[in-house]
Amino acid sequence: MTASLGATPTIVLVGHGMVGQRFLEALAERGLTATHRVVVLCEEPRPAYDRVQLTSYFSGKTPEDLSMTDLRFIEDHGIELHVGDPAETIDREARRVTARSGLVVDYDVLVLATGSYPFVPPVPNKDAEGCFVYRTIEDLLAIEEYAKKATTGAVVGGGLLGLEAAGALKGLGLTSHIVEFAPRLMPVQVDEGGGAALLRTIEEMGLSVHTGVGTQEIVVGEDGAVTGMKLSDGSELATDMVVFSAGVRPRDQLARDCGLTVGERGGISVDEQCRTVSDPHVFAIGECALAADGRVYGLVAPGYEQAETAAATIASDEAAFTGADLSTKLKLLGVDVASFGDAHGTAEDCLDVVYSDSRAGLYKKLVIGRDGTLLGGILVGDAEAYGTLKAFTGSVPPVAPEALVLPAGAGAPAQLGPSALPDDAIICSCHNVSKGAIRGAVTDHQCTTVPEVKKCTKAGTGCGSCVKVLGQLVNAELEAGGIEVDKGLCGCFSQTREELYEIVLALRINSYQELLDRHGREEARGGDGCEVCKPAVASIIASLAPAIGASGYVLDGEQAALQDTNDHFLANLQKNGSYSVVPRIPGGEIAPEKLIVIGEIARDFGLYTKITGGQRIDMFGARVEQLPLIWARLVDAGFESGHAYGKSLRTVKSCVGQTWCRYGVQDSVRMAIDLELRYRGLRSPHKLKSAVSGCQRECAEAQSKDFGVIATANGWNLYVGGNGGATPRHADLLAQDLSDAELVRLIDRFLMFYIRTADRLERTSTWLERIPGGLDHVRDVVVHDSLGICDELEKLMQAHVAHYRDEWAETINDPEKLARFVSFVNAPDTPDPVVAFVPERDQMKPDLPLLSIGMRPAEDVLEGSAQR
């Protein structure tokens, strides 16, 4: 089949990835799809998808979730999209492209967006069974299938994709190794200090990292399958599978075959208009292009800019691509990593301002010029300020550099917000959108929400790292214009969570429906509410239950329908549909008899057991109908619910303290037990974690908890607002040298003030940084009683303590409550057939079905073409 040159000029796009899709959008924006025939030859069996988020397949995302192709857009613009049909030859003299299917298309303009291919080091046995690359959806499917018969996996490459691949292997249940030839992880993005912080954090997650060594050979067994790797330092690493993620190379073979000029190290040579230097009718964009500045850009933002430049040039508009910002913000294995500007300080006479906290996994470096200009920086562990700092790059920030890296509570003033940025500051580098353009979308185009501003400016529609700053700018501009910003909890309530708390307490409302009907938005009254407000209100009612006369049992009556999935069955739902069981072990202290009970239960029910970071024993793999049977035995042995499923107190860790340790100065175990038994079951906006250390050596890690206690020779020091999770934060010292009674009284006040004023799903760390006045304000309220509410806060806590009831003890003694614990309501004796397990390391693990990612239905995927 041949498509000939005719009256309608033809644009052929070879490749339909993220950059190719952006090129099509740029053509449409300039009206070229109305005046040109546009043909797309796509090699993969599906239209463009978000390759940046590829790893999210392993966390449940579907191809539809990541698709970047609106098929309505393809049809409306008459674009002929051929999936699974790549270009095979280009005849430049005849201006003709031939596809694998035999389709021949004559072109007026040819645009190559063929991307890149993964580099596999030329080592022996690199193609053996068990060797994979990490690039496409099909690669992930193959890795997932092979991992079912593997226990150990190794990733060659410690860059962005390498770390994501290692995280994927770990998520598949494999012991994971990372082998990186450079002396540190992510050598392009971070320096030695940042690499060290990243290394510590990743190793704490259970991954093994080998830096400064290369792969010499893939070792195979008699069956030809991978059994290990020989490394350049002479060691051998045992592994069942190898994933190569050692970088990419420009995919330029098609260009080479048709005689286009390519760079010495690859890449199709183009000028500043992204037109190939060999042929004015051919353009190259994205990772296959060697830009005019001599670089191949592997990030999506420069690729988008090249796509827009090529489209503008085809439309006879003036445009040039002269280089791009290589700033990046990533979340790797849950760790924030960002670099911007001259991150490695290559400018002459530049200076570094560094903040490093190895215990919290934080590393922040700013590169400053002699005149105070911010040149660049690196952020590891906390990239909250990335958007603002990146926008300040090239200018002198309005505050001292050290104020930009110090965390709250460590001498830093209030963080600079985006309102301090000049109008020409670039907020979205993917689409080159300035702060002024965003403000204009609000003031000139009457945009009032982030989605509206996204549609108007395209800001936030690329990598997404600017969305938070975008939201702050939109709200600031609306408020500056006298427009009230809706800060309501959700579409059902115009009040904030704090305001709803006050309403529930003052009016003693103990029903969600009553609250919605009396105080919800007019259009929401009489309705069913939403998934945002129902669990939030349920938490408020549970927190205040004794004070407002509500039932303290979260599954009573209406409360049951409001709960999250975990609370609904008083257990944590796992990825295969089974549940985990976590009995409370106050302070981590447990008698041998109780250890034996846990072991017997785990053995009898075939449960996987693991020691948790909170000094408890977690039992995984219980079916929903087994939960009451398991808990009946636990309660009979003296255990109670550990509330691992709820937004409530989890654990109070402890070291052994002065009873056993020769360094201990106080009885930390006794204090931890007392605190855990006092605050058990306390429902709050988010989970609460605590710890008590018996001396300044801090073995219980109290300064990484929501409230932590450290013993001194004179009493106890109380720290608040710590977090050791995805965004680590050191706790702040609230008060020191407290007696037992003073300590408990301050914790009572602190927790109830937090529950009263925090937003939904807001940890104490972010709450403390958000509220006006921060730590000083909290100290004024809970220590000095500046608001005169401490008596009320103490009474609320006393009511909680006095009315505490163990949820599982109540459940197993009530047949009506037990009736909910079935997989199928209409077949209560039938277990869920999907929940299955396979053996691993003398225990068992979930037998997960292979993630099925096939083609969309033919009528929904445009397998042929959409004719105009």
UniProtKB/TrEMBL annotation:
Residues 646-782 form the Nitrite/sulphite reductase 4Fe-4S domain. Residues 574-635 form the Nitrite/Sulfite reductase ferredoxin-like domain. Siroheme binds at C699. Residues 327-390 form the NADH-rubredoxin oxidoreductase C-terminal domain. Its EC number is 1.8.7.1. Residues 426-473 form the BFD-like [2Fe-2S]-binding domain. Pfam families: Fer2_BFD, NIR_SIR, NIR_SIR_ferr, Pyr_redox_2, Rubredoxin_C. Residues 10-311 form the FAD/NAD(P)-binding domain. Keywords: 2Fe-2S, 4Fe-4S, FAD, Flavoprotein, Heme, Iron, Iron-sulfur, Metal-binding, Nitrate assimilation, Oxidoreductase, Thioether bond. [4Fe-4S] cluster binds at C655, C661, C695, C699. Its cofactor is [2Fe-2S] cluster; [4Fe-4S] cluster; siroheme; FAD. The keyword Cell cycle does not apply. Binds 1 [4Fe-4S] cluster per subunit. Binds 1 siroheme per subunit. Pathway: Nitrogen metabolism; nitrate reduction (assimilation). GO terms for molecular function: 2 iron, 2 sulfur cluster binding; 4 iron, 4 sulfur cluster binding; flavin adenine dinucleotide binding; heme binding; metal ion binding; NADP binding; nitrite reductase activity; sulfite reductase (ferredoxin) activity. It catalyses: hydrogen sulfide + 6 oxidized [2Fe-2S]-[ferredoxin] + 3 H2O = sulfite + 6 reduced [2Fe-2S]-[ferredoxin] + 7 H(+). GO terms for biological process: energy derivation by oxidation of organic compounds; nitrate assimilation. It comes from the Bacteria. Belongs to the nitrite and sulfite reductase 4Fe-4S domain family. Homodimer which associates with NirD. Catalyzes the reduction of sulfite to sulfide, a step in the biosynthesis of sulfur-containing amino acids and cofactors. This is assimilatory sulfite reductase (ferredoxin). The lineage of its organism: Bacteria, Bacillati, Actinomycetota, Actinomycetes, Kitasatosporales.
